Amino acid sequence: MHITHLSTCSLKRPRSGLTLAEVAISTLLVGVLMVASLRTVESSLHNWNAASSACGGGALARQLLDEIQTLAYEDTDGSPGFGVEAGEATSPATRAQFDDIDDYDAWSASPPQDRAGNALAEYSGWSRTVTVRKLAASNHAALASGATDEGLREILVTATSPTGEVTSLRAWRTNIGGIQQTLGVDQTVVTWIGCTLQVEPGEAAISGGTLVSNHAEDN
Mean of the pLDDT values across residues 71-90? Predict the structure, then answer.
């Protein structure tokens, strides 16, 4: 009798796909990386917005402070009061008639405006305020608005962004200096210097400048 032996063998095939554990671990890692990435983006946006607000606030405050400092210390029409004098208030209110620094006291506008009263469209939601105070010449302490002027004043300009960031600039003015020179003096007074840079005609230009402070003659 012939007996045939049959044998069987099993071949292990290469495993394909991922196990449930591997999928779970991969999902967890991807989630962690996404959260970290989103936090980085959020931080970058926050820093960018803060920097943008700081630059915008600084530009708004500087522009208005420079405008105020180019004017006379007080009104020269023979009745130097403190604040807006008769004939300088307009409706709607603008700065067009202001001719001395104390006219700006308590001035505010939202949105910010140019001197003619036109809103600065690129600064929608911003606001600017001005405070002018009399200071004591001896110790620079603040005086009441009705006190006798001692020849020293502080100008405070504040710009506030739509999200509440505040930028403030201060300047001090005295009642002596080049701007207070009477007419007829053979002298030129430079109060502001600026320049504009442009690579080619028709392209965007970059402008900048700075206020030239009063300078006493060296001894």
Answer: 75
Domain locations along the chain:
45-177
- Given a cut of 50, whether residue 219 has pLDDT beyond it is no
Q: Which tokens hold the place of 90?
A: 């307009």
12: CB partners within 8 A, 6+ apart: none
List Cα–Cα distances, 129 to 101, 126, 167, 174, 216, in angstroms.
14, 11, 11, 21, 30
CA dihedral 53, 58, 64, 66 (to 10 degrees): -170
User: What are the CA-CA distances from residue 153 to residues 9, 71, 93, 147, 179 (Å)?
Assistant: 103, 13, 24, 12, 15
Q: Which helix (H) or strand (E) holds 207?
A: strand 206-211
- The answer for residues whose C-beta is within 8 angstroms of residue 102's C-beta and 6 or more apart is 74, 75, 82, 83, 132, 153
Q: Where are the alpha helices (DSSP H) in the chain?
A: 20-69
pLDDT band at residue 104 under the 50/70/90 scheme: very high
pLDDT digits (tens, 9 = 90+) for 187-199: 666 777 777 777 7
DSSP-assigned states of every residue in 128-150 = EEEEEEEB-TTT--B--TTSPP-
Cα–Cα distance measured from residue 69 to residue 76, given in angstroms and rounded to the nearest whole number: 16
- Statement: the pTM of the whole predicted model exceeds 0.90: no
